[in-house]
Amino acid sequence: MADMGNVMNKTDKMKELITKLNEAAKAYYAEDREIMSNYEYDALYDELVALEEETGMTLSGSPTVSVGYEAVDELPKERHEKPMLSLAKTKSREELQSWLNGKEGLLSWKLDGLTIVLTYENGRLEKAVTRGNGEVGEVITNNAKVFKNIPHTISFHGRLILRGEAVITYSDFEKVNEEITDADAKYKNPRNLCSGSVRQLNNEITAKRNVRIFAFSLVSAQENGNDVDFNNDRENQFNFLKEQGFDVVEYKRVSPENILEAIEEFANKISGYDVPSDGLVLTYCDMAYGASLGRTAKFPRDSIAFKWADETAETTLKEIEWSPSRTGLINPVAIFEPVELEGTTVSRASVHNLSIMKGLKLGIGDRIKVYKANMIIPQIAENLTESGNLEIPEYCPVCGAKTEISKLNDAETLICPNIECEAKKIKAFTLLVSRDALNIDGLSEATLEKFIGKGFIHDFADIFHLDRYRKEITEMEGFGEKSYENLMESIEKAKDTTLAKFIYGLGISGIGSANAKMIYKAFHDDYDLLKSATMEELSDIEGIGEVLAEGICTFFDDEKKKASADNLLKELRIARTEVNAEEQIFTGKTFVITGSVEHFANRNEVKELIESKGGKVSGSVSSKTDYLINNDITSTSGKNKKAKELGIPIISEEMFLEML
User: Fold this and answer.
1) For 422-436, what is each residue's pLDDT tens digit?
2) Counting beta carbons within 10 angstroms of the beta carbon of residue 138, is it exposed (0 to 12), middle (13 to 18) or buried (19 or more)?
3) Helix ranges (DSSP H) in 110-159
4) Do residues 17 and 51 make contact, with C-beta atoms less than 8 angstroms apart?
5) What contacts 151, CB < 8 A, 6 or more positions away?
6) Which of 536, 532, 526, 467 is nearest to 502 (CA)?
7) Who wins on pLDDT, 581 or 313?
8) For 157-179, what is the mean pLDDT?
9) How far is the C-alpha of 585 from the C-alpha of 324, rounded, in Å?
10) I need a surface site. Which of 159, 403, 533, 542 has the fewest CB within 10 A?
C-alpha cells in the first residue's frame, strides 16, 4: 500500500483546491464578481489536474469533470452479490465489553441514513445500489455521482466493492427546511430527506441536497483475480479506503480495557455532531476470527450495534386528538405539555392504535413519561397515573359515520367504514393543489389531512373559503399569522388558471397534464362543450382513445362529481388561450429535455413553450423522439448515447432558440 500519510495529505490538498476553484467559479458566473484573477485560477486548476494524475483519483465536485444532470423514468432493481444483514443490538455498555471476548475491535458511529453499495472497476465508479430489502436494491448510480464527497475515479484499478452510509448533515437539513414555509411540508428528520434525495428520478435534485457518503465496510477488493491482503486487520481496510479518497466513518480502535472510555467519548460528542447517528457499531479487528463465528439467520456474528439509552421526560397529558386518515384508520395522537427531548421541544406523540392506548391506560391529566425512539420519533414510555378515563369516539370526526373497532393480529384499531368519508379522499385534494394543477403552496398532504380532519374542507371549492377558519388555523401547531397569510396569498393566486390545469386537477381516471392540454385545445377552452362531449368526440382527440374517453364520460355522468367540478369552477378565473395556427411550428414533433437550462427558469418552462407551439415533450428518448435538447452535446449520459444510437439530433438550448 502507498504511503498513507502522503496520500492523505494530497487528498486533503485536492479537496482544498476543489473548494477554492468552485467558490471562484460561482462568484464569477453566478454572482458577477471576481475573488481571484484568471492567472491564479489557472494555476490552481493546473495544480489540481497534476494531483489527480499523480494520485489517480478524481473527487466529487472537481471542476476537471462534469457530471450531467439526467432524469430517468424509474430506478431499476438489482440483486446484491452478498446479502446485507441487520446487526444484533444492545443498550448495555458492559455487554459490548464482554462481547469483545478479550480481542480488539473497531468502534464507530452507526450513521442514520441510507446504506449504499458502491462498485468500482478499473478505477472508475461503475455502480451504486441501495440496500433495499437486503437482497435486492435500487440502482442509483447517476445520483451517487453527484454526492458531495464521492470519488469518481480511484487509484486502485481492480474490482472494489464497499458499503457506505449516505447522509445529509443536520446543518444542511435545516437549510432545506428553512426554505419551506409550510410547517407540515417540512421534512421530519435528515434520514427521511436523505432517503428521498438519494432515490430521486432526477439527479439534479439529488445534487442540490448535499448528500454525503461515509464508507463503513469493505466487501471485497480484488486485483488480477486475487484478493488484496490486508494482514487480517480490518483497520487496514479502513486505511486503504482512505487512500482511495473515501471519507470513512469516524472510529476508534478499542480493547476490553478502554472500550467503556471510548463509548463515553462518543456519547460526549453526540450533541455537537453534525452527522445523524443513532448509535455505535463494534466490529472485530481480527477478520478471520470474525468470519469463523459465522452468522445467524438474521445477524452476522462479527459485528454488534449499540443503541443509546433513550432520554425521557415527565409531562401531563392534555388531550387525545383523533386523526382520521386516507386509509380509514382513526389514529389517537397524544397532546401533552411541551417538554425538551434530545435538544428539541416536543408536545405530541402518536399512540398508534387502541390496543396501545388501552395498554397504557391513558386518561386526560395523567402524568406520563415520553421519549424519542432512536432520538427521533416521540413516543409514550410509561403512564404514571393510569386513570384510563379516555372515551373512544362513536362517530368519525370528519363525516359523522358510526365508527367500528377492528381487530387484527391482537391489535385493535378504530376505523371509519364510510367509503365516501372526505378523509379518504385526501389523494384527490392533494392532486388538485399540486404544481401541475392549481399549484397552491402551503397545502401539503399532511396539512390537507389536518384541515379535512377538522372539518374545514369537504368539497374542492371549500379550499377557497379557508378564510372562514382563520382563528382555528392560526392557533394550530406549526401555523401562525405569517403561515396563514402566505397560504391565503397562494390560494388567491391559484384562482387564475387554465382549463388544462383545472381538468388535470379533477383527477379524471387516466388523464395526466399532457392529455388535459390536448383536451382543452380540442374544445377551445369551452368547459361546457367538454362536459357534454360524446365518447366518439373524445376518442377522436389525438392521444385520448376509447379507454380515456370512457373515463371522462364516466366522470361527468356522476352527478356528484360533476357538481363538485362545477362548484370549483365558480371559484376560478380561467384564462382563455388564443392559438395561432401559424405559430404551431412544432406540431407532430416530440422533444426530450435533459440537463440544466440557462435561458429559462427550469426545464418545465421549456416544456410549456414547446407545447404552446404544438409539440410534445417526453421523459425518455425513443424512436419517436425528434430532438434531444441538451446543452452538453458531448456528454456521455444515457440519453445522449441513446439519441446517437437512434440517429436523433442532439441540440443545445441556443439551437432550440434559433428554431423558434
Assistant:
1) 777 787 888 899 888
2) middle
3) 141-144
4) yes
5) 57, 58, 59, 60, 125, 244, 245, 246
6) 526
7) 313
8) 89
9) 51
10) 542
Q: What's the CA gap between 117 and 98, in Å, rounded?
A: 31
Cell 437550462 belongs to which residue? 597
What is the DSSP track for 430-451? HHHTSTTTT--TT--HHHHHHH
Residue 185 C-alpha from the chain's centroid: 12
SS3 612: helix
pTM: 0.52
The Cα–Cα gap between 456 and 325 comes to 15
Q: Which amino acid is at 98?
A: S
Question: Across the chain, what does the average pLDDT equal?
Answer: 85
Encode pLDDT of 489-548 as tens digits. Answer: 999 999 999 888 898 888 887 787 777 877 877 777 778 888 888 888 888 776 677 778
Query: Are the CB atoms for 120 and 156 separated by under 8 Å?
Result: yes
In this structure, what are the phi and psi dihedrals at residue 265, rounded to the nearest 5 degrees?
-60, -45
Region 617-644: what's the mean pLDDT? 83
**Is the Cβ–Cβ distance between 284 and 255 less than 8 Å?**
no
Q: Half-sphere exposure of residue 142, counting CA atoms within 13 Å on the CB side?
A: 21
Q: Look up cell 437482497; give the residue.
A: 135
Domains and CATH numbers, the chain: 4-59 (1.10.287.610), 77-306 (3.30.470.30), 312-415 (2.40.50.140), 422-494 (1.10.150.20), 499-574 (1.10.150.20), 581-659 (3.40.50.10190)
Give 176-197 as a 3 state SS string. Answer: HHHCCCCHHHCCCCHHHHHHHH
Backbone angles phi, psi at 109, to 5 degrees: -65, 145
466 in Cβ contact with 473 (< 8 Å): yes
Residue type, 521: K
Per-residue DSSP letter, 119: E
Q: Tell me, what amino acid is at 240?
A: F
637 Cβ neighbours under 8 A, 6+ residues apart: 68, 70, 594, 595, 630
- Going by C-alpha positions, the residue among 636, 610, 612 that lies closest to residue 625 is 610
In whole angstroms, what is the distance from residue 650 CA to residue 644 CA?
A: 8
The C-alpha cell 357534454 sits at 532
Going by their DSSP bridges, the two strands 226-227 and 212-223 should be labelled as antiparallel
Q: Which residues are catalytic?
A: 110
Burial zone of 352 (CB within 10 Å; 0-12 exposed, 13-18 middle, 19+ buried): middle
